[in-house]
Design brief:
Layout (H helix, E strand, L loop, with lengths): L5 H8 L1 H23 L7 H8 L12 H41 L1 H15 L10 H20 L6 H13 L5 H14 L1 H7 L2 H23 L4 H8 L4 H19 L1 H10 L12 E3 L5 H25 L15 H8 L3 E3 L3 H29 L10 H16 L5 E4 L1 H10 L5 E2 L13 H7 L1 E6 L9 H6 L4 E8 L10 E8 L10
Helix pairs in contact: 1-2, 2-4, 2-5, 2-16, 3-4, 3-18, 4-5, 4-6, 5-13, 5-15, 6-7, 7-10, 8-9, 8-14, 12-14, 13-16, 14-15, 17-18
Length: 509
């Protein structure tokens, strides 16, 4: 008897429903897991929030859109707002990919392309870590979608939407120029692109993009990017061999991020062996050569250019930052798989997809519980930011009669305190001050501050570097904070001290 799983029938008959169920399930998991189980922001999110809370933004942050949106979301709904914003970006990005795939290969194959993305974005890209790369995902996906509709489908009004999405991308990520370069190269090289570029709407759109490119260069210049040192590095003897090795390593890491996708594709194509049972075939209309060229350029062009630029300029490219580069991987697989795709191992394939979706969400809280007992190590997300912020805010208010507005000292700890404190103090980056920041030494003397540092014992004396940087500090006995899971970890002792405001009323302890 020929058995076809229910999800295969749903792919054929209700592809839009399958899309929304899959995407919203992933989003719900990655809103719920960090909200319920993370005691501290993941990755560099606490630093992003600390920087975003200090207008004007530091010049070294580059394009500022992610900082603006993160600050607004945190003010509105706390960390839940950040996690919700991050997953909203993922959902919008996947919808744009689905809409693009539907125009290229039909809705069923477009859903298959999006389902393959679970093999990348649940393991390879930590989407709760909101930042420039996460906000760049929907903007780049929308830019490509609107460009397709304007150029390939000749719907010229979409050029205005394309300009808006590209402008947003240029104030979202430092890699935006690479994406713009891919667009320009495709426009010049393709007949349809050249024809579309000669319309009135195109001139308006590209004028808007050109203006935002100028703004983007301003952000890069403020962030300290300079072209001359990069060119000089290329002239160093042996640079070519080193750059080539670094490029292969970077490409290897990106391929590793596709591990889940590779597993799904291998199962679908019958690996490790094809059984005797027939495989359901999902067919589509033939793909045109222009569509194939479009996918080649926009799926592989940004990856090639970004990895080359990252190696030449010396940028780090963590997998989280590469999120926009991976958006069209599923579409590329489906487009080049042929006009009829036979799905083998249907039951195993469905279970593997569900495992890729659910396993990371299950493993995250398990790791928070198990690692302190098994290895005596602690994940950053298990640090009690809320308890730290509440304690130091209340202690400062008792001693000075004022709300805590500034925290400094150890950068990581002070950022956690700033996130967890009800008054949401600013972080004083005294070792790397931002020009023009209102949180400076004068502000510390006028408003007072809490200075924090990690401590190994109950000795109240601050480390020599802290004492040298804050000579007016009045140290207190280090405070022990309860970890969510103690395990074999030592006590979490945080040394701290108070710098009283210049005109403090001297409230009782």
């Amino acid at each position: 008897m020929f058995y076809v799983p229910l999800y295969i029938e749903a792919l054929r008959s209700r592809p839009r429903l399958v899309f929304w169920l899959a995407v919203l399930a992933q989003a719900a998991l990655w809103v719920a897991v960090p909200t319920l189980f993370y005691a501290a922001p993941p990755g560099d999110l606490a630093h992003l929030l600390a920087v975003a809370h200090d207008p004007p933004l530091r010049p070294d942050v580059g394009p500022p859109l992610a900082y603006w949106l993160a600050d607004f979301a945190f003010r509105t709904a706390g960390m839940f707002g950040i996690y919700l914003l991050s997953q909203a970006c993922v959902v919008v990005a996947f919808w744009c990919v689905f809409a693009l795939g539907r125009a290229m290969v039909g809705p069923t194959h477009a859903v298959m392309a999006v389902l393959l993305m679970v093999g990348i974005f649940t393991f390879g890209v930590p989407t709760p870590e909101f930042g420039p790369a996460i906000i760049a995902m929907p903007l780049w996906a929308a830019t490509v979608l609107f460009y397709w509709r304007a150029v390939t489908e000749k719907r010229r009004a979409y050029l205005y939407a394309f300009a808006a999405a590209a402008a947003g991308l240029l104030i979202a990520t430092a890699y935006a120029l690479i994406f713009m370069a891919v667009l320009i190269l495709f426009t010049i090289a393709s007949r349809r692109g050249r024809a579309a570029a000669q319309t009135f709407e195109a001139w308006i759109a590209w004028a808007i993009v050109a203006g935002m490119v100028y703004v983007h260069f301003e952000f890069l210049e403020r962030a300290g990017f300079a072209l001359k040192p990069t060119l000089e590095r290329l002239r160093i003897a042996g640079a070519a061999a080193g750059n080539t090795g670094a490029w292969f390593k970077l490409v290897g890491l990106l391929l590793l991020a596709h591990a889940g996708l590779i597993v799904l594709v291998a199962l679908a194509f019958g690996w490790p062996r094809r059984g005797s049972a027939p495989a359901p075939a999902i067919a589509r209309a033939p793909v045109t050569p222009s569509t194939l060229n479009f996918v080649k350029i926009f799926a592989f062009g940004p990856v090639l250019l970004t990895t080359i630029v990252a190696v030449l300029v010396g940028f780090r490219l963590p997998i989280a930052d590469a999120a926009p580069l991976l958006l069209l991987s599923g579409v590329a697989v489906v487009v080049f798989a042929g006009n009829s795709i036979d799905l083998h191992h249907q039951r195993i394939l469905g279970m593997a997809w569900a495992a890729l979706l659910v396993a990371p969400a299950v493993l995250a809280p398990i790791a928070i519980v198990v690692l302190p007992w098994a290895t005596g190590s602690e994940l950053k997300v298990a640090q009690p930011a809320t308890a730290m912020g509440k304690f130091f805010a209340e202690s400062f208010a008792r001693r000075t009669g004022r709300p805590l507005t500034i925290v400094g000292g150890d950068q990581r700890i002070s950022e956690l305190v700033a996130v967890g404190a009800p008054s949401r103090p600013n972080v004083y980056f005294d070792t790397n001050p931002a020009p023009g920041s209102r949180i400076n030494a004068d502000a510390v003397r006028a408003s007072g501050a809490v200075i924090v540092w990690p401590s190994a014992d109950t000795n109240p004396a601050p480390p020599p570097d802290i004492k040298a940087r804050f000579p007016d500090l009045v140290p207190e006995v280090p405070h022990a904070f309860a970890r969510p899971v103690r395990g074999r970890l030592p006590p979490l002792l945080i040394g701290w001290g108070v710098i009283r405001p210049a005109d403090a009323s001297g409230a009782a302890r």
